[in-house]
Amino acid sequence: DAGVIQSPRHEVTEMGQEVTLRCKPISGHDYLFWYRQTMMRGLELLIYFNNNVPIDDSGMPEDRFSAKMPNASFSTLKIQPSEPRDSAVYFCASSPQGFYYGYTFGSGTRLTVV
Amino acid sequence: DAKTTQPPSMDCAEGRAANLPCNHSTISGNEYVYWYRQIHSQGPQYIIHGLKNNETNEMASLIITEDRKSSTLILPHATLRDTAVYYCIVRVASLYSGGGADGLTFGKGTHLIIQP
C-alpha cells in the first residue's frame, strides 16, 4: 500500500492566485481529513469527510477555503485567493471506519504564498 | 474531547526506555487515549491507543492508570530515530457514530530528544 498520497509536495505561489492541493487516501478508508500545521497554531483540523460527504467544516478558516471529495479515491483543498497567512504545511489523513483504528497521514504539502 | 497535559520536552539516552507521561484527569468513560508522533518534516504517525487496559504493539507500550486519569507511553529501547514530537490525545469513541466520527485534536505534545 502506497499510503496517503499528497501532491504537490511543495507549492510556491503569489498572493491572490488560486491554489489546489490534492490527496489520494488509502483504498478502503471511509474517512478523510485535512489538517493545517503552522508554528504558531500547531496542527489544526480543517474539514473531514465520511464516505465522500463533508461532515464537519467548522475548522475551515474562511470562505476562501473549499474542499471537495468527488469520489472515494480523491480529494482537493482549494484556496482562492491565496494570502501570505495561508503559508503552512497541509496534511491529508485517512482512516477506516471505527474508533479502534489510527489515522494514516500523508507527507504533506508545504505551501508558501509570497 | 478531554484536554491532556504533557511536558513540553524530554531527553532520553539512546538504548534506554523512554517514558512519556500524559495527564488526562477529566477523561470520560467512553474516551480512548491515543498516541501519535511527528518526526521532523513528516506527517504524524499513529503509535498506539487504549481504553483502560495496558496495550503493547511493535512500536510501544501504553500504560493507563486504574483511574484512567493519566497514562505513560513507553518506547522500550529508544533510538535516535525516535526523536520526535509525541502527542497524547483523548477521543470519544461512539458506537453509534461508528467511532470515526470526529477529527483528532492535537495539542502541543512532548518534544522527545534521544541523546547519543
Brief synopsis:
The complex is a heterodimer of chains A (114) and B (116). Chain A is 0% helix and 54% strand.
What is the topological layout?
The complex is a heterodimer of chains A (114) and B (116).
Chain A: E1 5-7, E2 10-13, E3 19-24, E4 31-38, E5 42-50, E6 53-56, E7 65-71, E8 74-79, E9 88-95, E10 104-105, E11 109-113
Parallel strand pairs in A: 2-11
Antiparallel strand pairs in A: 1-3, 3-8, 4-5, 4-9, 5-6, 7-8, 9-10, 9-11
Chain B: E1 9-13, E2 18-23, E3 31-38, E4 45-50, E5 55-56, E6 61-64, E7 70-75, E8 84-92, E9 110-115
Parallel strand pairs in B: 1-9
Antiparallel strand pairs in B: 2-7, 3-4, 3-8, 5-6, 6-7, 8-9
What does this structure look like?
The complex is a heterodimer of chains A (114) and B (116). Chain A is mostly beta strands. Chain A is built from no helices and 11 strands. In chain A, the strands form 2 sheets. In chain A, strands 2, 4, 5, 6, 9, 10 and 11 form a 7-stranded mixed β-sheet that branches. A 4-stranded antiparallel β-sheet of chain A has the order 1-3-8-7, with no helix packed on it. Chain A is globular, with a radius of gyration of 13 Å. Chain A starts with a strand and ends with a strand. Classes of the chains: A mainly beta (114), B mainly beta (116).
